[in-house]
Specification:
The protein is mainly alpha-helical. It is built from 19 helices and no strands. Helix 3 crosses helix 14, helix 3 runs antiparallel to helix 19 and helix 15 packs across helix 17.
Length: about 425
């Protein structure tokens, strides 16, 4: 009873922490010298909270996918469910990118913005991003792990997922006695990790408070930037809202799922995703809500959601597409139809390669800008107004994952609570 009461209060505590953090961050921005120590401590608290959550993600993903894949019992089941899942992930991501492309070409937020008159204040950050950029071939090759231990050390979730799928698949091909031992072991690991993350999540309001104070204080006076980027923000939010409240619900409805009831069931993970801007950090909450509130089986949940946390980035892909076209408009570069198609395809690959952690999208955005020959300096300008779009697109990523889980379960004949 006590645990359930705390769980019910978490959304309200997180919202209160978000609002209080915003107020304290604004005060800190007004007195940067006097309150620099307070901001530093707040940033440490937020970073420590995210690190604690990230600590469990690798083992959680490995154990959940191996358990889910091996528990399916046959490669034919994996092929059927895996095919549906990946097809839905790619389809919804492409729709999000095309929606963003349509809106940014209609609204044209970059027209009249002179980037050359406002050099980026984030040159060092941009240079670091450029140094880390990958081409499309490298993104695809990076999904193949050469050393699974190294993948854990570097938090390469895509490689961990590939290894876990292969390990789970070939677990089904050995003798029943041996496969049962492996399945029992990883199932036990999975449940331990879920218990650990459930305990960590009670610290979420404290983490959100620290994150919000540090980020708002760091923004300082952004009045000039907001005025020049207002249409850009309107374009991003319009795309996210349409995808979140119209496109995904219509898709759910077409498969016989009650979209807004499912959305209500997902309120805690969606609010957590919005607050932390991390789809990976939200994974334990998403898995719990999908399974225990919407009634989706662990077999579907443990396969779809960890996979979605890495490769299904609807909101991120939409944001990256809008950002690249916006920067092209702001630089006075008119992209051809072929170049815009390249933006769509590269946004899809970049979204697949983006880790479910804050700011990863900016690393992947360099890939798209390079693909169409645009300068990378404008990334710093977008960073200055990234805070709210980052939270909104992360919530959209998580909502897309949860929606696909419900659709796959429905097509598998499961009786859901939605």
């Amino acid at each position: 009873m006590k645990v359930s009461k705390i769980t019910r209060l978490l959304p309200f505590l997180m919202l209160a922490a978000l609002l209080l953090g915003g107020i304290l961050g604004k005060v800190a921005a007004s007195y940067p010298e006097e309150l620099s120590g307070f901001v530093a401590v707040s940033g440490w608290v937020g970073a420590a909270f995210l690190n604690i959550l990230k600590m469990v993600i690798g083992p959680l993903i490995l154990s959940s996918i191996i358990t889910g894949v091996a528990g399916m019992g046959s490669a034919s089941n994996l092929g059927r469910i895996g095919g549906k899942t990946i097809g839905l992930f790619l389809g919804t991501t492409v729709v999000a990118i095309v929606l963003g492309l349509f809106l940014v070409n209609i609204i044209k937020p970059g027209i009249g913005v002179n980037l050359l008159a406002d050099p980026s204040a984030n040159e060092v950050v941009v240079e670091n991003l450029v140094a880390e950029q990958q081409n499309v071939g490298e993104i695809l090759m990076d999904a193949i792990p050469s050393n699974i231990t190294k993948a854990f050390v570097e938090d390469n979730m895509l490689q961990i997922i590939v290894f876990a799928i292969l390990f789970g698949l070939f677990t089904t091909k050995i003798g029943h006695e041996q496969s049962k031992k492996i399945l029992d072991f990883f199932s036990a690991v999975f449940h331990v990790m879920m218990k650990l993350t459930s305990a960590i999540i009670k610290l979420t309001p404290i983490g959100i408070l620290g994150i919000t104070v540090e980020q708002v204080a760091r923004q300082g006076d952004v009045g000039a930037l907001v005025s020049s980027l207002l249409l850009f923000l309107v374009t991003v939010f319009a795309g996210i809202l349409i995808h979140f409240f119209v496109i995904i619900p219509l898709l759910l409805k077409s498969f016989g799922v009650k979209p807004y009831r499912h959305m209500k069931n997902m309120s805690l993970p969606l609010l957590t995703a919005f607050s932390t801007a991390s789809s990976s950090a939200t994974l334990p909450l998403s898995m719990d809500a999908v399974e225990n509130k919407s009634g989706i089986s662990n077999k579907i949940t443990s396969f779809v959601l960890p996979l979605g946390a890495t490769i299904n980035m609807n909101g991120t892909a939409l944001f990256e597409c809008v950002s690249v076209i916006f920067l092209a408009q702001a630089y006075g570069v008119e992209l051809t139809m072929l170049q815009q198609i390249i933006v769509v395809l590269t946004s899809l690959l970049a979204a697949v390669g983006a880790a479910g952690i804050p700011m990863a999208g900016f690393v992947m955005m360099t890939v798209i800008l390079s693909a169409v020959g645009l300068p990378l300096d404008g990334i710093g300008l977008i960073m200055s107004v990234n805070f709210l779009p980052d939270m909104a697109r992360t919530a959209t990523n998580v909502w897309g994952d949860c929606a696909v889980a419900a659709i796959v379960a429905k097509t598998e004949g499961e009786k859901l609570n939605v």
